[in-house]
Amino acid sequence: MQGKHGGFSASVNAMYDKAVGLMDLSPGLIEKIRVCNATYTVRFGVRLRGEIHTFTGYRSVHSEHMEPVKGGIRFAMAVDQDEVEALASLMTYKCALVETPFGGSKGGLCVDPRQWEPHEMEQITRRFAYELIKRDLINPAQNVPAPDMGTGEREMAWIADQYKRMKTTDINGNACVTGKPANAGGIAGRVEATGRGVQYALREFFRHPEDKAAAGLDGTLDGKRVIVQGLGNVGFHAASFLEREDGCKVTGIIERDGGIYNPDGLEVDMVHLHIREHGGVKGFPGATFDADGSKLLEAECDILIPAALEGVIHPGNADRVKAPLIIEAANGPITSDANDMLQKRGVIIIPDLYANAGGVTVSYFEWVKNLSHIRFGRMQRRAEESRHQVLVDELERLSKNKEVPWTLSDDFKRNYLRGAGELELVRSGLDDTMRAAYGAMREVWHHREEVPDLRTAGFIVAISRIAASYQAKGL
Ligand code: GLU
Q1: 7 lines ligand 1 (CB under 6 A)
Q2: Which CATH superfamily is domain 216-346 in?
Q3: For the chain: N or C, fewer Cβ within 10 A?
Q4: Dist. CA 363 → ligand 1 center (Å)
């Protein structure tokens, strides 16, 4: 694992340095963009089970070149300042690459959510939120958290409610956090968004023959063998969509308790159910199990999807990884040194700052929805349907005058007449975002010979945009 003491930030910064080395920026601006602006640490007590328990939490703001700043809140025992700062910096580059108008931030709380009852988690979350809200580290105009590892819709609903209790007259209170449930100001498609984004990223990659060829792959996603690490929210959705909608064969799944493998493919939804019932993948029927799941990172496959923790591919195992294509659904799963080793061997990496940006992209849509106080599609949907109906009626009228009248199939009419609802609009906006960002990245990758890989290209695109916004401010 990437070191807990300085390792993760150092790794992101090494990637950053590689990119700025190929850019023409002043040393002062390079330093300004690299550094983390501020990290707030809070220790607070909560009375639980008759005793006061002290928790440590962080909210890090990496860059305020645009505000609000954005990034998830992670609940895990391994959270520390270095991790939160590294993750905040990745948020800055990610937001710039996919053009969501935010600076980068991240939060974390050292807590194991499995050790506490839901009502206890609510107390802990509300108290942490209280500490951040009173310092404007949660605020619709300044800092907007979202889910990350160990948090989800439930925690976001508590945070939004806590904010509204404290700022009763803020009409934009719902926009203080994203990833809320549908009935509490959320948006359709946010839960699946990061996994959906991974799917759209892969589809886009497979649209470019030269890019596939660089990874030694051809054809479509259909039949490609996929190994995924982590069947949490991101890994589960990505794997399940790729299996059900693109025909991929998910041959390996790695979880906390080990890895399972079946060369004929595992049914992702069934494995997911098994994990919920049994707490792990062990015992899943028809698959071989190995308690050392990390070995599966080194198994034969076409696409490897690390969707769990940072630093899982490191100099100790990078040379044994056989996948020709890795897509980083997690943040920072490949250390900077391992990245260089893989790149030397011609392994193509679709980097985290692009690959997992689906979450923040749909968070952006949710924030806009909250600020506009109206659901997407509410005004247009039926108008769109009526205009389509006019066309269908006219075509049918014209067909009646023909000697051999033709008809429009019911299927066509159903699909064509349906106006887009919120979920379709969200998916369309996400797809467009993923295609545009990939285009910007591959343009730099292919057209500048000195740019070795997609990651460096992604960093260059992101850093140029951040630099432009600093320069516009006269810095
Ligand atoms: N935690 C997610 C990430 O790492 C989502 C952030 C957000 O939606 O603001 O990108």
Answers
A1: no
A2: NAD(P)-binding Rossmann-like Domain (3.40.50.720)
A3: C
A4: 8
